[in-house]
Amino acid sequence: MINQNYYQNHIKKFPEQFAEGIKRASNIDFPKNLMGISICGVGGSALYGELLNNIFQSDYRISLNIEIIRSYTLPTPPRKDVLYIVSSYSGNTEETISCLNEIMKLNLPLCIFTSGGKLLQIAKEKNLPLYEIPAGIQPRLSTGYFVAGVISIAEKLSLIPTYQQELFRIAEQLEKNLKEDEAKILASQLKNKIPIIYTSNNISSIARIAKIKFNENCKIQSFHNEFPELNHNEMVGFTNVLMNPFLILLQSKFTHHRNKQRMNIFEELMTEKNIPAQVFLLQGDSILAELLNTYYFIEHVSYYLAQEYGVDPEPVEMVEEFKKRIEKL
User: Do 185 and 103 sit in the same domain of this protein?
Assistant: First the structure.
């Protein structure tokens, strides 16, 4: 097994991140008059934002829609009634630091999410609200900490009802619900193919996350889209297939019934063209449960696919090389 430490001490620790994250966020306080949340971040330090939006959009009690800023600058006009979460696991992400400088210049409400680097230094020097995440793991493996931090803060701001107990309940069942043998089988089927992940629009975040897991853990290309939109454009691209795809169709029991029908018919069409396609019915009694169970499953699929290719899933050498080159400019 390649990099067993990554498997045992990083991947398998995911269910524990939620309780630890809630504990770490317990002492952070904010003004009670804030009306929303914006996340300034990129990569693994931002991908949890869409996940949370899918969860909140499934709950009629919640009107919160988190704005995700993957840029060097804030959207205009900047808002004084939202909390800006300045999120960089490493603490050295230049886009995020650029946003922080603008936020501080405008004296906007903020909280820093980081494990170290320049952001941790700034937070401590200026006594800024800080949610400190444990160091030593890849940002993409810190999703549980990020999710727990935002949920804790959103509860304190009265933007969402209490979610912590439900979060803990689901987290405790993740390992039991994991179909690890299925993950190994899917990984073997994906070898030498390009994973394309399609979901219904109510769980679109997990398609993006799965794509990123294949990119970073397996060091391969991967793409994603959602129903029903892809039925109006992207699927026409399979008329003339220029690659070797494998279509992973993730179906939520909570999506519109017509989306389920669209997904099944699409699978039939692709199978008739000898394009591998498989529908996976998501596990869970809520959108929150479906998303977290699927996140954990895909994490394992991508790990075992990395094993199939004989690559170490942990390092992201191309990202590090890119950073070195752009820092010289």
Answer: no
